[in-house]
Design brief:
With about 160 residues, this protein is mainly alpha-helical. The chain has one domain (about 20-164). It has helices at about 5-15, 20-45, 60-75, 80-100, 100-120, 140-164.
Length: about 160
Amino acid sequence: MLASKDDKLMGMQELLGNIVLWAAVSGLVSAQILKPIIHLVLRRGWDWHLLLTTGGMPSSHTSAVIAMTVSIAMTEGLSSPLFAFAVIFSLITMSDATNVRYETGKQAELLNQWSELLSEIHKNGPFSPQNLKTMIGHSGLQVAAGLVLGLAVGTASTLLMTNA
């Protein structure tokens, strides 16, 4: 059965009014906007690339999942199964960012060094180096910054949307 125009409109209104979704998106966007600003302050240079990259300060993945978790806590309650799911999902995301993805970045650095060395050894050979992305994961400080940002953004966006 096809949905009517009214059903589609109602579905769009529900999506646009999803407080938890907007909290998570706000956490993600806030972190991405902060990355080049923090880079500018600490390294004295603007880098537009940081607006769309993974890795770096603060962790946008952490900010998004924590903002989502806070919003679920505020809208559904601390005893809701959805909040429990969000907490576990957030912990897994933060662990992955600091462990698996961070180590993957370290391995990429080493592979890039080996690639350069092999390229030097085989200057006229068929080997051509390809650099792997090294800024994949996060340090503990970057994840902690994402956590604090997510708490603030999740709280603020949920309060703003529930009082609007």
